[in-house]
Amino acid sequence: MNAANLPCPLWRRLVALVYDLLIVVAIVMVVGLLCQLATGGELIATGTHAMVPLWYQALQCVVVAAYFVASWRRGGQTVGMRPWRIRVSRDDGGTISLLQAVVRVSAAAAPMLLLALEPTLGLHTTLWAVLAAWALWFGVALLDPRRRALHDIAADTEVRRLPAS
């Protein structure tokens, strides 16, 4: 079996994700700066408790999701996946569809919905809950013979290693 047919080990996916998180932080910072400029520096209301407008949260979600969807649709790789020579694909090795990309990014981001529990659980507990949910999402890859995480199963995609050039 050549490297192109080998499922990607979980550790390689997680390291690539760390690279992508750096890109995501940069995207979020640029969008935040533009929104701060557009609102005259009054984007977030401060006081006893900071209030972030829902439109801004939704915009950040859309922009970050667009980075992943566009990357997967155009070559199957994000910036973080390139140095680790891994690619998201359909089970036949082809480029994933727009629907698969949207399902994949939505399923991968689903643990973020737990952030809504912050007023009830507190920030510390809520962040641990999100982390635990993502551990479960990716932990499934340790049991799946094709090394698919929960979002891969939901979208019918997989991550494969690319052959050495």
Walk me through what this model shows.
The chain is mostly helical. Strands 1-2 form a two-stranded antiparallel ribbon. It has helices at residues 10-38, 54-73, 98-109, 118-121, 123-143, 150-155; strands at residues 86-89, 158-161.
Strand-residue proportion = under 5%
Number of strands: 2
Shape field:
globular
Largest sheet data? 2 strands, antiparallel
Residue-averaged pLDDT:
92
Order of helices and strands: HHEHHHHE
| Count of separate DSSP helical elements | 6
The residue fraction in helices comes out at 55-70%
In the sheet with the most strands, the strands line up as 1-2
Low-confidence stretches: none
User: What is the SS-derived class?
Assistant: mainly alpha
Task: Give a short synopsis of this structure.
This protein is mainly alpha-helical.
Keywords:
165 residues, mainly alpha, two-stranded antiparallel ribbon, 2 strands, 56% helix
Topology:
Layout: H1 10-38, H2 54-73, E1 86-89, H3 98-109, H4 118-121, H5 123-143, H6 150-155, E2 158-161
Antiparallel strand pairs: 1-2
Helix pairs in contact: 1-2, 2-3
